[in-house]
Design a protein that fits this description.
Blueprint (H helix, E strand, L loop, with lengths): L7 E10 L2 E5 L5 E5 L20 E9 L5 E4 H12 L11 H4 L31 H27 L9
Parallel strand pairs: 3-5
Antiparallel strand pairs: 1-2, 1-4, 2-3, 4-5
Length: 166
């Protein structure tokens, strides 16, 4: 049986290393499941997830010219979960706003007396504004923002860090 990229096969864990686990496939070939492909969670130690002689389902990610086989447990689990779910794809016609479950609590909204956090230039109907006018407006806005930032930093330092005498 030739291994095809993307196929899901069952194998037995034959060894565990810091960087992943070696899995023997049905045709007596051995592939490596890299530590990043063991689980969708952060894996600090492969031994927490796998033991030698465990039987696992793996997805063949790649087979290189030297015969090295790269495997993934997390991709095999994700694909199996997608195949089990009968309603996959439901709700594709919905508006994105209807599917949103939560809002970002600190959305970048301008407050009174403060400039907005949106640093893109405000596009009003500019018509035929020269480059020099645009540049001078940009420099003015930039100077205002730097001054505001400087005031903010100095207030957090208590005003003592502006200049130091050596």
């Amino acid at each position: 049986m030739a291994l095809e990229i993307g196929s899901i096969v069952e194998g037995t864990v034959t060894g565990i290393a810091k960087f992943g686990a070696f899995v023997e496939l049905p045709d007596k070939k051995v592939g490596l499941v890299h530590i990043s492909e063991v689980s969708s969670e952060y894996v600090n130690d492969v031994n927490d997830y796998l033991k030698v002689h465990d039987t696992v389902k793996v997805k063949v990610i790649s087979v290189d010219a030297k015969g090295k086989i790269a495997l993934s447990i997390k991709q095999a689990q994700a694909q199996a979960a997608r195949e089990k779910r009968p309603d996959h794809g439901a709700g594709r016609g919905e508006r994105p706003e209807a599917r949103r479950t939560e809002r970002r609590p600190f959305a970048a909204q301008p407050r009174e007396g403060r400039p907005s956090r949106d640093f893109r230039p405000q596009r009003k109907h500019e018509g035929a504004v020269s480059f020099e006018d645009k540049l001078s407006r940009f420099l003015k806005d930039s100077d205002e923002r730097l001054l505001d930032l400087k005031r903010n930093v100095e207030s957090k330092r208590g005003g003592r860090g502006a200049r130091r005498a050596d």
